[in-house]
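My current task is to audit a protein record that another person submitted. I have pasted the whole thing underneath without changing anything:
***
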Amino acid sequence: MKLPSDVKSAKLLKALPKVGFKETHRVGSHFHFQHLDCRRTQVAMHNKPISKGTLKAILNQTELPLEKLKKLL
């Protein structure tokens, strides 16, 4: 399945807590999230959409399937 190219940071920041990730801290515009089973990732808050490579890295770090992410957004 193809990665979407229109995912904004704000939507992703709202979707991660829905699947069990908690914000641990912020450094500038970067939000750091961690799951109870020690999976972790960070999301940068910007106005433009997240690039496909960055989105793929976030999906790999969180171990979220693309279909589930699409439902959350």
Remarks:
- Residues 52-62 form the longest helix (11 residues).
- The domain at 9-72 is CATH 3.30.920.30 (Metal Transport, Frataxin; Chain A).
